[in-house]
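Input/output pair, single chain:
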Amino acid sequence: SMVIVPCCHKELIEQLDCKEIEPIYKHNIFRARLNDLLTDSLRSLFIEAHGYEVSALEYISPLDTPKNLMIRAIRISDKNDAAKAEYEQMKKTFNVKPTMEDYVY
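Output:
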C-alpha cells in the first residue's frame, strides 16, 4: 500500500494544450486550477494502471490550504489496462508528458 501527498504541480502547466477547452483556462488562475486537477488525476490513473486501487481524499480543511489531497493506493493486481488506456488518452487530450513516466516505464 501507499499513501501519497502530492506536491510539485507546476510541471504540466506549461505543457497544457487542449484547444477544445482553451477558453476555460485562458486566465492564469483557471489554468493553475485545471493544472492541479489534471496533475492529480494523471497521478491517480498512473498508479491505477500499475495495479493499485486508488482513493483520493482531503486530509486538511481547504480553509487551511488548497493543497490538501491525499492519494491512498492498495495493490490489487499487476496492472490495469483500462486505467492505462484512460491515462494515455488524458495525456493525448491535454498534450502532456509527466516526468513520473521516466521512473517507471
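The mean pLDDT is 91. Residues 28-49 form the longest helix (22 residues).
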